[in-house]
Amino acid sequence: MKPYYGLAVAALAAPLLVSGPASAHHGWAGQDNSKVTTLEGRVDAVRYRNPHGELDLTSGNQKWTVTLAPVARMSARGLTEDKIKVGQVVKINGHRNLDPARLEVKANDITVNGQTTSLR
User: How far apart are the C-alpha atoms of 10 and 94, rounded to whole Å?
Assistant: First the structure.
């Protein structure tokens, strides 16, 4: 009976180990959802990759990391990979990381070349 006990525990624990980091990664609990942060600045890097796009943005004298939407959602809304280029000025509205030392924002929307795309 004892060999099956260890197998049963492992089988029950496996889904928790796999889903834990993924669900924590995509949550909004680490963001200040009480107010919207607006940034406007130059795009330093763009990463169209799963699970979501990202860009590095210089706004003022600060370098920010901006989390965008999943690539499929952005593409479906017309924000394809060729729309955001390094050197462009974009505007972001979103929610800042709760840790003020981390210059990170999860974007609600992005304005590129005068066109605003919802990312939610």
Answer: 40
Convert the pLDDT of each residue in 18-54 to its tens digit: 433 333 345 656 776 789 999 999 999 999 999 999 9
Asked if 38 contacts 93 with a C-beta cutoff of 8 angstroms, the reply is: yes
- Which tokens hold the place of 50? 């799963």
Residue 1 lies in a domain: no
Q: Is the pLDDT of residue 80 over 70?
A: yes
Instruction: Return the structure tokens found at 57.
Output: 């943005």
User: How big is the CA angle at 41 (ends 63 and 105), to the nearest 5 degrees?
Assistant: 55
C-alpha span between 97 and 120 (Å, rounded): 17
- d(CA 120, CA 118) in angstroms, rounded, equals 6
CA distance 23 to 2: 33
Residue 15 lies in a domain: no
Domain that holds residue 98: 37-118
> What is the identity of the amino acid at 88?
Q
Give me the half-sphere count of Cα atoms (radius 13 Å) on the Cβ side of residue 15.
3
